[in-house]
Design a protein that fits this description.
Layout: H1 2-40
Length: 56
């Protein structure tokens, strides 16, 4: 009974880990797209150079 519970627990942990990794990949992809859009849409400075698109 104990080995069966251990195998079931391992399967649940691995499934949860795989789901979390997949969600993190989608979040990373969305952040990358937002960063690229912000990088391409940044304005120009008065001196003719390109300014920063973020405020930090």
């Amino acid at each position: 009974m104990v080995p069966l519970l251990l195998v079931l627990l391992l399967a649940i942990v691995l499934f949860g880990f795989g789901f979390a990794v997949k969600v993190l990949w989608w979040i990373a992809l969305a952040v990358l797209v937002l960063w690229l859009l912000g990088f391409l849409a940044r304005g120009t400075k008065t001196g003719g150079g390109r300014g920063r698109w973020y405020r930090w």
